[in-house]
Design brief:
By secondary structure, the protein is of the alpha/beta class. 25% of the residues lie in helices and 25% in strands. It has a seven-stranded mixed sheet with strand order 6-5-4-7-8-11-10. It binds S-adenosylmethionine. One of its GO terms (molecular function) is methyltransferase activity.
Amino acid sequence: MCKGKIGLIPFHYFINSEIQPARMASVRRFKFDTSDLHEKNQKSLIISIPEVLDPSYGMYVWPSAVVLAQYVSIHREEIKSKRILEVGAGTSLPGVVAAKLGASVTLTDDIHQPVCLENCKKSCQENQLEDVSIMGLSWGRFTPQMLELPPQDIILASDCFYDSKDFEDIVATFKFFIQRNNKCQCWVTYQQRSTERSIEYLLQKWKLKCCHVPLVLFGADSPCIAGSELPGNHTIEMMIITDQS
Ligand SMILES: C[S@@+](CC[C@H](N)C(=O)[O-])C[C@H]1O[C@@H](n2cnc3c(N)ncnc32)[C@H](O)[C@@H]1O
């Protein structure tokens, strides 16, 4: 059982709007190696993600997203044909990688942030993904639309644990999906911003457990992943949350 330490101080990694004009748009490219060890020819998966320079959190790729996308890409055989739902998806890099590798993907973001849901859509369009479902899902709110979803195998969550007021809602959302499929795994990456906070008591309360996944195990212990300059010098952690039983 890992400690489940989570940092919380939100930060903007585009800092000075006097230097950077607001709402500057660009497309960021990521290249994931998808070749097997024994394959002679290297194959790459190229993903393009539209970003907008904007103070809203879901408008650009966060350092945690590239780490989670790398984990998804390394587990390409495991995720093929699995049902995967991403929460707080924003620009949706991990979910888009999963969809490109053959998973049946649903991307979600806060129902009150239509601009973020629009981003999920743009990321799918940019990568020629037509079969990905997109829906509003606000952590801790259980809607009829959520009840209509089929049981999910994997929940992806990249940089969702940044504001402690949301922690229990996120954990409760994980529990919702785990209750519908007790084999469901929640693959979580987060940015270490403070060692003062922990979600361990919430996992105990909701009868869940977590195990820490060292980044070195999936080649994500470098400041540059997938041909990008992310995660940079940020400390990213990964854990897998599952049912306690
Ligand atoms: C720090 S961003 C991370 C975005 C993306 N997962 C990434 O790593 O690049 C947090 C995301 O959570 C979403 N979010 C914030 N509050 C939420 C809530 N109450 N319910 C669902 N999503 C929420 C934001 O809209 C945003 O897309």
